Amino acid sequence: MTRAEMKSLVVILFVRLTLTLFTACSTEGYKPVIIVHGLFDGPKQFEILKRFITKSHPGTIVSVIDLYNHLFSLEPLWKQVEGFKNAVYPIMQSATDGIHLICFSQGGLVCRGLIATLDNHNVHSLILLSSPLAGQYGDTAYLKLFPKLLKSEIYRFCYTRWGQRVSICNYWNDPHQRERYLKTGSFLAQLNGETAHQNSTRWRENVLRIKTLILIGGPDDGVITPWQSSLFGFYDKNENIVGMKDMDWYIKDVFGLKTLHSRGDLKEYIYSGVLHTKWHANYTVYNESIDEWLT
Ligand SMILES: *[C@@H]1O[C@H](CO)[C@@H](O)[C@H](O)[C@H]1NC(C)=O
Ligand SMILES: *[C@@H]1O[C@H](CO)[C@@H](O)[C@H](O)[C@H]1NC(C)=O
Ligand SMILES: *[C@@H]1O[C@H](CO)[C@@H](O)[C@H](O)[C@H]1NC(C)=O
């Protein structure tokens, strides 16, 4: 090989290497973001959030899953998990670098079910925005599903085979009807490891494969009751609040929450002055607690 040939070879190799690096960077960009809506809403409600994301991270592919919208959001949650899984999985597969999930309200429980049962998910940030993670015990104006029933009576409907066909009953958590709650073995009781499930060990491993869990909620939410449920807190039998770290399933690390926390991969954000339906349209919330987790 002559000196000239050597020189051109070096140049070719250098150009190749630069090109490879360049393509790697440009195709990498931002990871796709998938949004899962909540009870009684659908993709239309997330236009503003979508705009926030594409403005701060240009080129991000944002998909708001168009499934179980509005009244169909009352379908039972395990069924919804299967539906959303079918929609989300192809997006995951084409995203070699992984994806981020933003899940609002009831959608947070759908996402938890999805992550627990998807053995090969590639979710990096799991952002749960005002989601009833430890259950719901409040019948608010927005949630006036049972106009003739007091909240203390709702268990009579929810903790039955029929009741469990309605999404809300899958996470209705009446602190005065603990035994019935556990016996019905609702979606939430299974997910939180309060009732035994055949696959709970694998679910836990799958949960631990996410990179970061981001929890967002606040006292003026007005729908999630108690609002601390959005941060894995809940009522005891006297309706006093028990914080996440004092929950039995946290202490026993049943579904991986304590491990995520000790790994430094659990982030909590609390905001006052945000109504339930305003979370995903609030720029302050987006800028401070979501933006940095979408890279
Ligand atoms: C446990 O997981 C397997 C494999 O995904 C599934 O076929 C089975 O139905 C699951 N068991 C229950 C009780 O959901
Ligand atoms: C947005 O969030 C900020 C921070 O908590 C809050 O003070 C403000 O009231 C919220 N705005 C709306 C319209 O929800
Ligand atoms: C977004 O948050 C950063 C700090 O995290 C702050 O410096 C910046 O001013 C905020 N942007 C707006 C438009 O509020």
TrEMBL record:
Keywords: Glycoprotein, Hydrolase, Lysosome, Signal
Location, primary (coarse class): other
Signal peptide: 1-20
A GO CC term assigned to this protein in UniProt: lysosome
SUPFAM superfamilies attached to this UniProt entry: alpha/beta-Hydrolases
Localization per record: Lysosome
GO MF entries: palmitoyl hydrolase activity; thiolester hydrolase activity
Domain of life the protein comes from: Eukaryota
E.C. code: 3.1.2.2
Top class in the EC scheme: hydrolase
Catalytic activity entry: S-hexadecanoyl-N-acetylcysteamine + H2O = N-acetylcysteamine + hexadecanoate + H(+)
Classification via Gene3D superfamilies: alpha/beta hydrolase
Function: Catalyzes the cleavage of thioester bonds from S-palmitoyl-CoA or S-palmitoyl-N-acetylcysteamine (unbranched structures) but does not have activity against palmitoylcysteine or palmitoylated proteins, branched structures or bulky head groups. Conversely, hydrolyzes both long and short chain fatty acyl-CoA substrate.
Family: Belongs to the palmitoyl-protein thioesterase family.
Family matches, as PANTHER family: PALMITOYL-PROTEIN THIOESTERASE/DOLICHYLDIPHOSPHATASE 1, ZGC:66024
Protein name (Swiss-Prot/TrEMBL): palmitoyl-CoA hydrolase
Lineage of the species this protein comes from: Eukaryota, Metazoa, Chordata, Craniata, Vertebrata
